[in-house]
Amino acid sequence: MMVRQSRSCILMVCFLAFFGCTLKTVDTIETGDGTALKSKVLIATQNSQFKGEVLSEIKKALGEDVSYIKVVDVKRLPNESVDQYSAFVILNSCMAGRPDPRVESFIDDIPDKGRLVVLTTGRLDSWKPDSPEVDAITSASTMSETDAVARTIVDKVRVIISPY
Fold this sequence. Notes:
The protein has a single domain (25-161), classed as Rossmann fold (3-Layer(aba) Sandwich). Helices cover 37% and strands 21% of the residues. The protein is an alpha/beta fold and 164 residues long. The chain is globular and about 40 Å long. The longest helix is centred in the first third of the chain and has 21 residues, at 2-22. Helix 2 crosses helix 4 (146-161).
């Protein structure tokens, strides 16, 4: 029984490692004035049609409300300085009930979790961060819902950046 579980774990790790390394990454995109001191938003995402559409709608809606938006792949989250941004948006998927470890680490390390909006997608997964200060949303990747999901995220970001 134990050998069978070990094999299953090893296969799952290999599967995740293979697909985690081969998935197309999201290109870094910067919009606006990066030297601005106020209302800067970092959006970290993964490559999927649903997240791409939500991202596009978020950028369009926030365009005039913020001075700077930077979009990065979730894999690049460890490289970002939290001090530079007014708000953070993370669009991530759950695999086996957990998000990308870099997402969890970023959330754990950010001192002001109230500046963070996290969307987690997955068919059966509904992972949310442990911290109640994080504004967490879960959604299935249903293309007809991209507008509503993006609008919800934009409304939450506007509340976060309103003091800036």
